[in-house]
Structures are given as C-alpha cells and as structure tokens.
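> run fold SEC24 homolog D, COPII coat complex component
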Amino acid sequence: MSQQGYVATPPYSQSQPGIGLSPPHYGHYGDPSHAGSPPGMMKPAGPLGAAAPGGMLPQGPSPPGPHQFGQNGAHAQGHPPQRFPGPPPVNSAASSYAPYSPSTPSSYPSPASTSVIAQLGHQLSAMHINSYGSGMAPPGQGPPGPPSAPLFQGPPQPPQPSIMQPGSQVLPPPPTTALNGPGASPLPPSTHRQDGLPGPAPLNAQYQPPPPPGQTLGTGYSPQQANYGPQMAGGQLSYPGGFPGGPAQMAGPPQLQKKLDPDSIPSPVSRGQVYATNTRGQVPPLVTTDCVIQDQGNASPRYIRCTTYCFPCTSDMAKQAQIPLAAVIKPFATIPSNETPLFLVNHGENGPVRCNRCKAYMCPFMQFIEGGRRYQCGFCNCVNDVPPFYFQHLDHIGRRLDHYEKPELSLGSYEYVATLDYCRKNKPPNPPAFIFMIDVSYSNIKNGLVKLICEELKTVLEKLPKEEQEDTSAIRVGFITYNKVLHFFNVKSNLAQPQMMVVTDVGEVFVPLLDGFLVNYQESQSVIHNLLDQIPEMFADSNENETVFAPVIQAGMEALQAADCPGKLFIFHSSLPTAEAPGKLKNRDDKKLINTDKEKILFQPQTNVYDSLAKDCVAHGCCVTLFLFPSQYVDVASLGLVPQLTGGTLYKYNNFQMHMDSQQFLNDLRNDIEKKIGFDAIMRVRTSTGFRATDFFGGIFMNNTTDVEMAAIDCDKAVTVEFKHDDKLGEDSGALIQCAVLYTTVGGQRRLRIHNLSLNCSSQLADLYKSCETDALINFFAKSAFKAVLHQPLKVIREILVNQTAHMLACYRKNCASPSAASQLILPDSMKVLPVYMNCLLKNCVLLSRPEISTDERAYQRQLVMTMGVADSQLFFYPQLLPIHTLDVKSTTLPAAIRCSESRLSEEGIFLLANGLNMFLWLGVSSPPELIQGIFNVPSFAHVSTDMVSIFFFHTKLIKQREQPEMVFRQFLVEDKGLYGGSSYVDFLCCVHKEICQLLN
Ligand SMILES: [Zn+2]
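> ok
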C-alpha cells in the first residue's frame, strides 16, 4: 500500500525534526536509568554483516495439504490434524481449562470474571424468557457488510463507526471524509438509532459468533499469501475487521463539541475470522475480535502484541513520531480449545539448538546454508555449525526437508524440554508446593470466613493442577494459620491427628518442622480434612485482633526453601498488620496528600521490608497470592507489593459479606488454584541487531538489564517490554523478537517456552502509523504511567500522556496525512480509538483522584494494571456495556456491546456493564416485567431490591435507574464527563485537537 501521492507535504514540513515538543518524553517519566545504552550492550555485527535481502526468513508459504489449517470454518472448529509426530502437545492444559472467550477476556480477580457474561446467554436461555422486540435483528448480527468489500466473503459485518469509510483495506486509501457535522455523516439514517433500542442495525455490533462450520472464510488469511520476504505492502492491514479506509477527519474544536454526532466519533470495534501468522509485520485483529488464530511462523497475538508491527528504521524517526515501541508478552496465555496447543520439542541430552553467539534458540528466523551444514542466526547474523544430531538436507528452495516436522522450524511458538544445564544446581527441580496461610484473628473467625475457607479447601485441593499425562498432582501442600504468632501444622499421612507447632518469634521466623509439613494431598487427605475441620474451632475463643504479615510470607518462603522447591503461598488476610514484627504497618492514609506533589507517597510501600521480601521470594521461586478482606484501610500499597512482584494475584473483597461475596471469593480461589502456571521462571527477550529491550513492566524482578526473573507466571500475567534503537534497522531484514521463558512445570519438569515474532521496518512514517495497535499502546501507556506514579506528581504524568498523544497525532498529520483545514482533527486509521482510550486512562482513579475512591482501591488498581495483558487492559479501561434486554434467548450469542455513555441507556432496557473488576446490572425504570420476572423472580421493577442476589448475576451490583447508587455506576460510562472531574470523550478530542494545532503552529 504505497503512500506516495498520499503523503502530504505541508508548508511547515521544513521545520526541525519533531514538532516542537522537546525533549520527547516517549513514555518515560524522567527515569534516568533509561538514558543511553549501557556499555557492552551493542550487538556485535555478524561476520556476514547485514543479512542479504530476503535471505533470512523461511521462503514462501507453507505448502497446502492436510496438515495445514484449512481456510474454512469446518477446520477452524476443531483441532487441525497435528503436524508433528512424536511428543504430545505440551500445553494441552489448554483444552482442560475453561475455554478462552476472546470477546470477554477477563482474567482478573473479583466481581467480573466476565466468563460469567459469556455464560449469560446459556443461563438466560434456560429461563424460557420470551423474546422481546419482535422485528429486531438477532443480537450480535449486524447488518450486511459493506457491498464494496470484495476480498472478504465471510459472515456479515457491521459498518464501522461512521468516520471510517467502508472499503477494502488492500486498495489504496479512499479519499478522506471530512465530517463537519451530523449532516456530513455517510451513515444511513438507521444507524443513528440509539443503541439498545430494538432496531435493525446496532451500530457498534462488535461481537460476532464464529462462522458456521463449512463457511468460507476470507481470502485475506490465505496461506497462499504468505510472504516472508522483505515486502512491506499488502501485509499491513489485510485482515478482515481492520479499520478500512483513510484517516479519520473531524471538524475542529469550535464545531466539534456541539455538532458531533456521537456515532461519528471512533469506537472500539472489530471482528475477524481466521488469522494466520504467516506474514511478517502483519497487524493482528483487534484484541476484542473473535477469531481463530493459526500459528504459521509467528507467535499468536494471544502471546505477543506489539504497539506497532512496523518499527521505524532509525531512532530519529522514532523520536519524531513518539510512538512507543513495545511488546506486551503473555507467555502462558490461555489458548482456546479450537486452536493448537504448543508442541514440545525434546532433543534429549543435546538440549535446544542455540546460536553460539547470542544464544537465541532455533526458530523460523534461522537460515540454513551450505547444504544444511550451517545456519545463520537471524538475530545476530552469526553463522553456526549445525550440530551433527540436528543435520538435515535442504530442498531446492533452501529449506530443510524436515521443515514441517519440526515445530521450532515452522512455528512461532513451541516448547523445549530443558536439560540439566537449565536447572538450579544442575539438578532436576522438585515439583512445586502450595502453602495455605489463614489469618485466624478474631474478626475472621467471628464472621465465618475461616470456616468458609477451610470448607472450600477440602474441595479445591482435589483440583490441584497436574501434568496432562499424570493421574494425580505432584504438588505438595502445607498449612499455616496465624494472628500475631504463626502455627505450623504437621499433616503427615501416618498421623491420627494433625499436630500444631507455634512459632512466637516473628522477628526471626524459622520453620519448626520439615517432615510432615509439605505433603501429598492424596496421601494425607484424612489428616488434612481433620485439620480443616478443627481450625475454626481451634481459634473460636481467640480474642486476638492483631496480625503480622511479612513474617507470614517469610515463613512460607523459608518452608519452600527448606523443601528445595518452588511454590505458591495462598494468604487469606484481613487487617492492617500492626503487631510488633518486621513489616509492621501503621495507618498512614492521608487524603490531604491528594493533588499535591506528595500524593505519590500513597502508592509507595510504607517500609522497604516488603521490597526486599519480594526480592527474596523471586530468588527462591516463591509466588505469593493474597486474598484480602479489608473492612478499613489496610495499606494495599505495602501488602500488595509482594504479590505484584512475585507473579501472584491480589484479590480484594471490601467489607466482605458472607451472603453477598462468598460465591465470588470461592470462584476466584478455585480459578487461582487450577490455573495454568509456571514456576521459578527467567524470561529473556532477544532481538535482531539494531534495537533491544530496554524497559520491562510486570510481576517481575530484575537483577541485571536483561534477565527478567519471575517467581511464577500464570496464564493471566503479561510483561510489557519497551524497545529502543541502538542502530539502524533494515527494511529488508525487519525486526525480530524472540522471547524465551525458562520455567518449572506443575509436575516439576524444567522447560523452555519460546515465542518468536517478526516485525517490519520502514523509513516511511506512514508505514509506522499504519501498523499501530491501539490496545497495545494503551497497555504500554498505562503501565509506564502507573509505574511513574511512584515517583512523579500525577498532574505531570497526565500532561505527559496528553502531550504525547497530541504529538503522535500531530506528527501523523504533518508527515502522513493529506493537507486539510486546520479545523479538522485527523486521526490515523490505526489510532482512531486512541483518544477515547487515552481519556479513559487519564480518568482512571490512579491518575485522577476522586474523593469517593479509597487510597487502597487506587493502590490496588495500580498494581493490578501492571501485570495485565492487552485484552484485560482494554476491558479495564473501556468497559463492556451489553443491552441484556436484546438478548436472543434462542442464541448463545451475546448482544453486541454498546458505547459506554449514558445516552446509550434506555428506560426500557437492562444493561450489564463489566470491566473485569466490577460488574453492574443497570435496570431501566421501564424494564420489561417479563425479564425482571425471569431474572429476579419478582413481578416488576418496583419489587427489585438492590441487595437482591440473582442466581444469574451473583456477584453483580444491581443499579436501579434514578436511585442513589447509580452514581457509582455512572463513573464507568467512560465516554461521559466524570462526576468528579475527567473530560468527556468529546471534550478530550477538542483538547487533543487544540494541542495538535499548537504543535503544528
Ligand atoms: Zn545469534
């Protein structure tokens, strides 16, 4: 897609590089550690110099055949025939875990595990509710696709939001459409209908069921289009569901606010079908898109998403555009059951084949030469001998004859069995252990929480994760209770009764027993059940109110260390740890700090005990997950630090009430125990020459600049990696990324998980802008801003975000867009929804304090976001709002999500809002009585009480229209003006536009 003749050359283009903002902040907030390259970090040039054009990557497409993923929906519905004989798929846990539902991607704790939403259709349909609104379109089914989409013959697509021109992406951009008011909208009148009302065309129909079996999918994904070569054109946006057309243009600030049709400003929307990863630099479908992904040589976007799939060739160009270059890596992402799990490669004692110089692992980016005797590394260009055991002849196009038999030659993601060289002390690791640590202070006993936990543990211990091929879990379990002292329990299988040992010296915690503390659950089942029955009684008469916290973690970590195994602590805690002990905390919540330069203190841990504890935990492979039940301030900034940095999760249940919240807590506990997880992990991100990973965000610890250490990493955690240039990048060779995670499985096997991704490089800014991914950009901006919160005033951080947004868009306008009137706001296709997301980020309670949000809640959300993947951050910042009343009970399809604005609600409607953390059911005053009856079993709206718990929405807050709690709900309508500050989407567009105009002048 050539941009020639399309790139505007405005009169101001002769100004200095950059657009006047200096120096560019570029996503960092004055952190001096990122200035310049540390010595010794430059990658050596390979003996062959820069790679020969087109020479480094596998040639051509995969041959079609039965082993290939077909193009049609029939294949897409199930596992494709496996390509690789030999070892079974390693990650077959994917099939034993809950299916991933891309449109409801929450993995985060608490009220909205939105898989619940996905079940909604089934559940409601079981109620035999009558269908409403006869004559309405089936939910989730938009109107027929644009007639001019010639390449995509798939299921019907809805029109994109109105400023986008329907059309084919592979054609040159159509003329831009300037909207100077509602009259200029190209949309048919029907699409102006308010969302949520019965009508033929839900404008923002985002979610589409997978195609019916046998349905032909778009040729845009055809394997025949595979072109690994250095081509730039074509592969950029050629997936169905991408935003078609040229840049968006809107009227300028004066008119914008009053005249803009809400439907004409961009909305987060898309869909897709089958996406094959065979093309370098191909922008994947949006994270909200429901599609099937085929690994054809690059890691699935479920594992890695980048802020842009085309890197600028030079650092000057990167500074000019100020688009962060980053990858969001979720190495253990859950893969839906209709996608292929990872294959396991076992080279026996030889171990993985690696480049001698840069130590990159064998992957599709290695080029075999000299008849197959040597290979050139795609990362450092070093020419290596092929080890004798690995030799294979090449075919006429220079590809190994076993190309399709070896996952590491033809796939983007796979695993290796690690040899003893990859194990601590060159010994095979012991299987991990889980230690359950229960706060038995007075209030927890009194409110029944301890009893609830103990009862539930009996059930969940039956479901400890195990290797696919094993019958029972190898994970050992141990139990500790505590208040201001610690109680260890001996639950050895030959005991008639569990034995308790009390450790009162919490200043120097030691582990009083080794034998009998960590046991096999099956073997010790009766003793363990005995213990769990006794614990609530044991402390029933305790009046102890004080608790310790750091010594609890210390004890768990030392127990794991003594057993020489990695593991996970499950801590159930309720209060501020005020007992005399290391990590003792005082109540330092101070609202007076809000909106001052000292506000950052509220986000910092109160003592450095927790920081060094986290470091020790990571060093010993000890992951900490914390279930917190606070009834007042407990200093989440301090208590949550260890869970955050050790790859654990913090679950928080404010003012826990047994009848309201226990179901949610038990769900969270079950999911957390069962979820896919790797222990004692080290991640290394390697890159081809010219750029390197410089900054990392996530549940990680780093002792040097390259090794990302993680006590554990589970299927929900992501690490965001920022890249910087250290040289020029070549358009021919592209930019290659290899992420390798060395870890221990739940069965105690040492493995390497490898994800490879190839990106394009260009010296044209337009190519860079074309290939951006807004969801990943927001993930990066959120994490870098939330990290900066610890050091900088929030006002400064917000300004940097606004400036950088304006700068990115101004650079586009100046260098890539056609000349246009200054009054028009011009957005690149790929960034159409950037302003709405950026505004959501700016309004988040971490960056914008609101009086009704507690300090703990803000600290919690800050920590939570730091480990989020792209799907989770997208949902978190822009919640899903579903018109439940339009649900087609005969279909399993959810209604299409609508925009988060009050204007989209209707009195006759019932709406579900979820952001992965909170879930609300909003009832309009004129909600259909039949639906009210079906959901709540009461005759009408007036009979619904907001503390009612529906079996369908058991952890959902009920909000009745025009009643007080509606205020809480409204702050999630993120396109509207905030109740306590924060711009509306339209106001923010005006603000950004003004900034852009200033930059351009
Ligand atoms: Zn190398």
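Residues 349-410 form a domain with the SH3 type barrels. fold (CATH 2.30.30.380).
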